[in-house]
Every structure is written in structure tokens, then in C-alpha cells.
Amino acid sequence: MILFDQDLKSIESAPDVFTVTVTDNWSVNGNPDGGYLMALMASVMLGRNNKIRMPIITANYISRSVPGPAEIHLEEISLTEQFHRFEARLIQEGKEKVRALATFGLDNAECNLNRYETAPTPLAPRESCVPVPAGIPKYTLFDQLDVLLDPVCAGWMQNHLTDRSENKGWIKFRNQQPYDFLSLLLIADSLPPAVFATQGMMAWVPTIELSVNIRNLPQSQWLNCCLRTRFISCGILEADGEVWDEVGNLVAISRQIAQMKKP
Q1: So what's the pLDDT on residue 261?
Q2: Which of 175, 240, 198 is nearest to 1 (CA)?
Q3: Which residues pair with 73 in a beta bridge?
Q4: Which whole number is the average pLDDT over 1-17?
Q5: Which of 3-7, 102-106, 139-143, 174-178 has the lowest mean pLDDT?
Q6: Residues 41, 92: contact at Cβ < 8 Å?
Q7: First and final CA of the chain: distance in angstroms?
Q8: pLDDT tens-digit map of 64-109
């Protein structure tokens, strides 16, 4: 079994209660990646819903999760002809760590209009990009993903900062695993924080809320990803993300609200 799929396994231990293990294979500075936690919760929802097109998922990260056992408590909110909605809560050590709301649309929804008023972010050729190295202790996410940053935004790794809070680059799984809705939730939260480009690397930019809307399954392994922050005030920032495939399909959009903590 592919590692990512294996790390999403769950067992229904009681009605609407699922036992899972939060692994340390998708961590950033020792903290489970927010996209991985979202995918873990969404995997339970997907097992129950009958409408799987273009999921829209929002997660609130209430307190820090850690690798180890957990429970996911699932509640169906509503089922209509168009949408199936769920709420899920991730519980560790008796405390709620993450709460997520998800809306799943009709799988056979008719697409009458496909209009993009912006294009994929221009990226340097992959051979010119700067890889985020694997093997960094506590940053296991980059052991599993190839992340190549465009040189224009990669200077923060050598403390050469820019005047634009943006990280952009190419991302794919190192093991070439096929993409599905769950793996795209991880991809949408895999670029280093955009604020690094102007403020330098910080140990952690903890997510308060993350929303991801999947639009299409990609038609290429390499994905064009961009994350942009425009406003930082009182220790709070936003980060708007886009994921495109190499043939020009919009794969996902995201919006994240996070804390900015100086070293």
C-alpha cells in the first residue's frame, strides 16, 4: 500500500467514532502538517458520502496535534440532491484538536462554464529551481514530496529576502503516487509559508484555519503551486494558494489564516 494511503487508515470503533493514527511521516518541525490532518478527517467523510465531486473542506486547528493515536468523531449535517455535508472532530488525549466541515457535491454535476480569469503562476524550468532538501530532522513532509522553489522566491533559505511574501514552485510525490481528492488536500498545504520570503525562516507558522476547494484531478505528476500573503497585522496573516497542473487545469484553491511567530 502507498504510504500516504496507509497513513489515512481508520477503524470504526463505535458508531460514528473512528480510531486513527496520526503518523510522523508528514510533519513540519515535528508538527503534523495541517493538510495531512485535513486529509485524515476527510478520508472518514469520504467513506460515508455518496457525492464526491469538488469537495470544499474547512478545518479549524484548535490546538497542536502530535503523532500518535487519535479518534475522529463524525456527524452528518445534511443530505440534499446537490450536497452532502459533514462535520468531523479529531480528538487526542481526550481533547479536541481539529474540527472540520466538508461539503461534497454531485459527482455528475454538469460543467456549463469553465472560465479562468487568471493564468497559472509563471515558474522557472524545474532544472533551474531550488529543491527543498529531504532528510531535515523533524521535516518529514519533504522526505515524501519533491518541492522545487522558483529562484525568485527561494532566497530565504540563504537569508536573502525579497519584498514580496510569496512562495511558488513545482511539487509532486517522490513515489509518483496517483492523485486523488485526499492527496490534493496535502499538496495544497505543502509549500513553505509565503511569509518566509520577506521575513526569513521561522520555526513554525501555526495554522488557525485552512479552507481547500478541489476543482479538478490533475493530468500531470508535477503541479504548479503558489502561496501568497499580502497582509500581516497583530501577529495574524492570510495565505492564498493555487494549484494547477501542467496542461493548465486549475486543481485546487486554498485560503489559510495563520499566526506569525518570530524565532
Answers
A1: 76
A2: 175
A3: 17, 89
A4: 94
A5: 102-106
A6: no
A7: 39
A8: 999 999 999 999 999 988 899 999 999 999 999 999 999 998 765 5
Give me 129's grid cell: 529551481
How far from chain centre, in Å, is Cα 119? 21
The 10 Å CB-count burial string (b at 16+, else e) for 202-236 is bebbebeebbbbbbbebeebbbbbbbbbeeeeeee
CA distance 26 to 32: 6
Where do the H-state alpha helices sit in 57-153? 141-144
* Buried/exposed 67-78: b ≥16 CB within 10 Å, e otherwise: beebbbbbeeee
d(CA 103, CA 260): 29
**CA–CA dist 256, 263 (Å, integer):** 21
- Walk me through the domains of the chain, giving residue ranges and CATH numbers: 3-107+126-259 (2.40.160.210)
The beta strands (E) that lie in the chain are given as: 10-14, 17-22, 27-28, 31-32, 53-61, 68-79, 83-92, 95-105, 130-131, 145-149, 166-173, 207-214, 223-228, 232-233, 236-245, 250-259
Contact 177, 17 (CB under 8 A): no
The 3-state DSSP class for residue 220 equals coil
- Cα(206)–Cα(257) distance, integer angstroms: 9
Q: pLDDT of 99-150, one tens digit each?
A: 999 999 876 556 677 889 999 999 999 999 999 999 999 999 999 999 999 9
